[in-house]
Design goal:
The protein is an alpha+beta fold. The protein is 36% helix and 17% strand. The longest helix is centred in the middle third of the chain and has 20 residues.
């Protein structure tokens, strides 16, 4: 008989074995989770912590470096800045009640593992971040780096990445208005796949990821969760795929641009009806 791992059950079974290491968590991280909760996590809580505390979602190894960009913002740079670092995407006032929003994201390791879907879900993720600000996405761009053009693995990765970026954007009706591609020995076995999305919005439609108060409803909507489950994104950002240690190679996330198109219209329709609220999502569409 299956016993649901509720909070009460977790409290009553503090020594239950949990697959925290298999989910990519370190010893000290698992200890910190128990300290925060005052008990061991349930299986569902553990899966969510493994995602939200992963490199892919929390930038735990790079945030110390990324923080400098917020610290270096000048008064001149803030003049037309409506939303800066810390939100899903930056927003700049362009006058007459209009604003533009930009988001760039790398999908390097996912694109190395599965070039088409890795690049496609990179586009899907930044489009999601654009609509979460209340904006309609209007275009995408990309900056790509690969190993030498005659290197066999470049021939494996490059066609899928290009097709993934174009295929996802085209399915949403978004033109790819520019980009750049370079080849160098230093990217051999470590391609860089950076995608950018641009959106436009009225000032009144701006939404942020913050919510406050008691009794707020949380509505989850999106594509079906795949076989990779809740923890599918946990190892995507910085996992090493060498043979020197056990690998937590992730299953490739599968994008669904047609579902994403429906979500775009549903989200913007809700915002324009005055019902929109904060959105902080780490999944893909």
């Amino acid at each position: 008989m299956f016993n649901l791992d509720t909070v009460d059950h977790a409290t009553a079974t503090p020594d239950a074995e949990l697959p925290w290491a298999e989910l990519g968590l370190k010893d000290n991280e698992f200890a910190e989770i128990k300290k925060v909760l005052g008990r061991r996590p349930t299986h569902a809580e553990l899966a969510m912590y493994s995602v939200m505390w992963s490199e892919h979602c929390s930038y735990k190894s790079s945030k110390v470096h990324l923080r400098q960009f917020g610290e270096k913002v000048t008064d001149e740079m803030r003049q037309d800045l409506m939303v800066g670092i810390g939100e899903n995407a930056g927003v700049t006032d362009i006058g007459d009640g209009w604003a533009v929003t930009f988001k760039i994201e790398s999908h390097n390791s996912p694109s190395f593992v599965e070039p088409y879907q890795g690049a496609a879900t990179g586009v899907g993720g930044i489009v999601r971040d654009i609509i979460s600000m209340g904006a309609r996405p209007v275009a995408v761009m990309d900056a790509l780096r690969f190993g030498p053009i005659d290197y066999p693995d470049t021939q494996r990765v490059l066609p899928g990445v290009v097709a993934g970026i174009g295929g996802y954007g085209n399915s949403l009706g978004l033109p790819n208005i520019g980009g750049e591609t370079e080849f160098d020995e230093c990217y051999r076995g470590n391609p860089l796949v950076n995608a950018l999305a641009v959106g436009v919005l009225r000032h009144d439609d701006l939404r942020t990821a913050n919510a406050s108060g008691v009794g707020n409803q949380v509505v989850l909507f999106g594509a079906r969760t795949g076989g990779d489950g809740i923890g599918g994104a946990r190892g995507l950002a910085s996992e090493s795929f060498g043979d020197t240690k056990p690998s937590t190679r992730p299953a490739a996330q599968i994008g669904d641009p047609l579902a994403a198109k429906g979500l775009i219209e549903a989200s913007l329709g809700r915002i324009h009806s005055g019902l929109g609220g904060g959105n902080q999502d780490q999944g893909g569409v």
